[in-house]
Amino acid sequence: MEPRSRSFYILSAFFGLFVLFLYGPTLTIGILSFQGEGGGLTFPMRGVSMYWFYDLFEQQAVGDIWGSFRRSIVLGLMVMVTTVVVSVIGGLAFRKKFLGSGILFYLIITALVIPSILVSLGVGLLFSQSGLNVHWSTSGFGAQLTWTLPFGLLIMFAVFNRFDKSYEEAARDLGASPWQTIRYVVLPIIAPSLIGVALFGFTLSYDEFARTLLTAGSYNTLPLEIYGMTTNVTSPVLYALGTLTTLFSLLIIGGVLTLALLSNRRKARAGSDAGRAV
């Protein structure tokens, strides 16, 4: 085994510092959330307990933690489903050139470079001036789609750009209709990418702050509620909330990855059974 060079250790140390910079704040919040009853917002810790997690489930003097949590979940699911459906439709549409496709593509990408707070302001003004209700489920939903849809469409553009059209041709040769080709051939093949788009859409919506700030109306989503609590709550209960929301995010990601793994194994098993049958 050859001895490792000095550059290897330098790069390893740099990578370790990068990981610490990336996850250090989250780890710090997680540690401070396990303080005792007399704990504060900074080190040193005052005891170790689950007190603040229990306190989180009690009636809080300020804020609506669990109401905002439910709203963020519902909004995230709405954005996720819409992002997946529109991204697939857009990806299929852009497989062929059509009049105005180039302009439409750049209009989609432009939504990513416009400052999020300006998008929030514009959508909020549009709804209020039109006499529509500024609410997290309407204006907030629309504002968040301006953030998630471009990412979903870019993923689908890349997926369909390398998609082998011979599978569709074979399905049509066997008598499949266009809808049957999409349902039984195209969608199963791109299923892993759809899971990625769904996960992307949900996570981007779940923690979106700027584009929801002026479009949520009278009811906060969880990021807005946490921001509001930082000006009122001066106890580690805020850290306990951050720890639980982080664990929830990891649970969602783990669940999606598990479903994808099980799906791949089932496909592999079905292909193996078909091969033995032949």
TrEMBL record:
GO cellular component annotations of the record: plasma membrane
SUPFAM superfamilies linked to this entry: MetI-like
InterPro entries attached to this UniProt entry: Bact_Polyamine_Transport, MetI-like, MetI-like_sf
Membrane topology: Multi-pass membrane protein
Major site of localization recorded for this protein: membrane
This protein's UniProt keywords: Cell membrane, Membrane, Transmembrane, Transmembrane helix, Transport
Residue ranges constituting the ABC transmembrane type-1 domain according to the UniProt record: 69-263
A Pfam family recorded for this sequence: BPD_transp_1
A GO BP annotation: transmembrane transport
Positions of transmembrane segments: 7-34, 73-94, 103-127, 147-163, 184-204, 237-262
Subcellular location per the Swiss-Prot or TrEMBL entry: Cell membrane
Highest rank taxon of the organism: Bacteria
Entry similarity comment: Belongs to the binding-protein-dependent transport system permease family. CysTW subfamily.
Protein's recorded name: Inner membrane ABC transporter permease protein YdcV
Organism of provenance: Pelagimonas varians
